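Sanity check record (used in CI):
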Amino acid sequence: MRIRQLGDPLLRQVSAPVSRAEIKSEYIQNIIKAMKQTLDGIKSISDTNGNALSAPQAGHLVRLILLRIDGMFVPMINPEIIDVSDGLSINEEECFSFYAVRAKVQRHQSIRLAYTDELGNDQTLELEGEYSALAQHEIDHLNGVLFLDHVESMESVQSIDFLLQDDQVRLQQVKSMMEYMTEIV
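Expected output for Peptide deformylase:
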């Protein structure tokens, strides 16, 4: 499978840090390349999707996430949230590992991250809004946490079949993405 699905025990495990010596290794660089290809494949089906993925979802228990920010891939190795805003927002979240479900989750409106880039350089980045929520979601994956663990009201959990019942074109597009994500490669 391109993306590990709910029920896979790997999704509930804590990912290992990547050492400085491993960052430029073929292993880590190939994970980044495969994650980019997966996100590009998703984006080719739906332009509004394909913006974030964690290494555990791709089958690797290493502390690595990939975000697409303003159209550019930003690989983050050993990402750590070093500061958060007091302000919180409630976002409707989805996850490539169980894409048939959406729910409302509370996240910090903005965060500051420290991470190492794919060249081994230390970086910091401030993210707001959607990008902040995406990063928090993906970092949760590195700790074996799924967005459903943050849901305060089970009444907010809804299926895509229900949510998109009046938009059959979008529903078919989403189902095509789900087929792509679960396809055995």
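The chain has five helices and eight strands. If this sentence no longer matches the regenerated tokens, the check is flagged for review.
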